[in-house]
Amino acid sequence: MPRSNPLPSQPFFSTPQQRLALARQRYFEEGTRPSGLVSEGVIQSWTRCVQAHRDPFERIAFNPVTPSRIHSALARSQLMLQAAADDLAQLEHTLAGTRCTAILTDAQGVVVHATQSAADQGERLLPLARRIGVNIDEEHIGTGAPGVTIRTGQPCLVLGGEHFFGHLQLLHCAAAPIRDVHGQLAAVLDVTCEGRPFGFDAAAVVGLYATTIENQLLRAQSTEHLVVHLQTAPALLGTPMEGLAGVDSHGRIAWVNNVAARLLGVSQGEAGLRADEVFGLDANRLIALSRESASATHRLPNGLNVALTAHLQARDGLSRPLAPAPRLSATAPAPAGTLRDQDRDLIARTVEACDGNVSRAARQLGVSRGLVYRHLKAAAAG
Q1: Treating both helix axes as pointing N-terminal to C-terminal, what angle do 358-365 and 339-353 enclose, rounded to 10 degrees?
Q2: How far is CA 332 from CA 88, 326, 343, 376, in A?
C-alpha cells in the first residue's frame, strides 16, 4: 500500500516538519543517509534500530511495571534521588506552566522519578512513559533523547519525527547525562513534551539542571574527600558553573567535574594526579582553604587565575567547611606529610583539645564520630 508523501513538490523545505519528512523518506525508503537534515546522533540511533530488525511502523508498548520492579528501581537509585531531590523539585516548579514532564532515569534507562505535567492535557504517551519502573532506553522505545544519551554519554535533542517509531512522533525530548565520581554514567535527566514543540530552549534547561544534580551527587559520594571549588570569578562559586574536584587522603585527585576538568586542563576521567601538581598548592594550603570563610585568589600552574574554596564532605552528604583547628603554641611544628597524615594530626589535636570527647571533637570538625574513631585507630596502629 503506498504511503502518503507529506513533502512539497519544490526542492526547498522551509519547516522542520518538511525537513524531517525528507530525512525519513531518504533513510527509510531510499536507504540514503539524511546528513544535514537530522543530527548524527539520531542517524546512528536509527541505524542501530534497523540493525536490531525493528520496523519504524511498528507500534511499541511501554513495558508494564509491578510493585517489586518499582521498589527495585527506587532502591538502586536511593543516593541519586536524595542528591537530586531539591533540584528536581525546583525543576518541576520551573516547568509548571509548560506542559512538559521532567524524567530521571538510571543508567539503564529505567524511570526513577517523574514530574507531572499540567492536568488533563489529552496526553496519551507521557502518562505511560513517565511511570516509575518503565524502561525508556533505545532497546525498548527506539530513538529518543534518553536512549541516545545512555548510548553516547552526550546530551541529545530528539524532536517529533526524529523518533524511530512513527507513533512516538508526538513526543519532543531533550536529555543530558549525569556522571558519578568514577566518571561513569549514573543517570539521565530528560524533559519531554507531548503534542507540540518546546516553546523554550529545552536542551539548555535540562543541561543546567543535570549539571546541578551531578554536582550534588559528586559531593554526596565524596564522604571522605576534600572538595575543592574553583572558578574564574568568585560570584560563580556555588552555581552550576563552578568547578569541583575531590582530593583523597593521599593528596591525589579522585575526581573532577566537567568544569574543573576544563579549568585545570585535565581529563575528566583522569584520576590519581597529584593535587599539588594540578593546583600548585600543597596539602597544607588545601586544608587551610577549608577553614577560610572567603574564597582565595590563586594562579594555577597553567597560568589561569581562579577563585578557590574547599570543604570537607561529611558522611551526611552536607558540604561544610572544617572548623578552626585548636590553637597551637608558637613552638608547635607545622604539619607535614600526606593529606591523610595531616587529617590524622588535625583530628588527634582536636580530640586532645576536647579532653578526649570524640562526640564534641566530631561536632567541632563537622564530621562523623565514626570518621574520628577510624582516624584515631589508624594513628594508633601506625
Answers
A1: 120
A2: 49, 12, 16, 20
Q: For CA atoms 360, 361, 363, 369, give the dihedral sign.
A: negative
* DSSP secondary structure code for residue 333 in this structure: P
Q: Which helix (H) or strand (E) segment is 229 a member of?
A: strand 226-231
pTM for this prediction: 0.78
The phi, psi pair for 183, rounded to 5°, reads 80, 10
Residues 6+ apart with CB under 8 A from 89: none
Q: Which one, of 114, 181, 187, 182, lies nearest residue 146 by Cα?
A: 187
Exposed/middle/buried for 172, CB within 10 Å: 0-12, 13-18, 19+? Answer: buried
Alpha carbon distance 204, 268 (integer Å) = 21
User: What are the tens digits of pLDDT across the range 305-360?
Assistant: 999 999 886 554 444 443 343 333 333 344 445 555 666 677 777 777 776 666 67
Q: In what order do the strands lie in the sheet with 111-114?
A: 111-114, 100-106, 185-194, 171-179, 156-159
pLDDT per residue as tens digits for the range 264-311: 999 887 778 999 999 998 877 888 888 888 899 999 999 999 999 998
* 262/268 Cα distance (integer angstroms): 8
Facing residues of 192 across strands? 101, 173
Rounded Cα distance, 303 and 298, in Å:
10
Q: DSSP letter at 39?
A: -
**Measured between alpha carbons, how far is 193 from 102 in angstroms, rounded to an integer?**
9
Backbone torsions φ then ψ of 355, nearest 5 degrees:
55, 35
Using CA atoms, how far apart are residues 348 and 123, in angstroms rounded to an integer? 61
- Rounded distance between C-alpha atoms, residue 309 and residue 228, angstroms: 6
Measured between alpha carbons, how far is 19 from 8 in angstroms, rounded to an integer? 11
Structural domains of the chain sorted by starting position, each given as residue range(s) with its CATH number in brackets: 16-51 (no CATH), 77-219 (3.30.450.40), 222-320 (no CATH), 339-381 (1.10.10)
Tally Cβ neighbours within 10 Å of residue 259.
20
What's the pLDDT at 324? 40
Cell digits of residue 254? 579522585
**Cβ atoms of 278 and 255 closer than 8 Å:** no
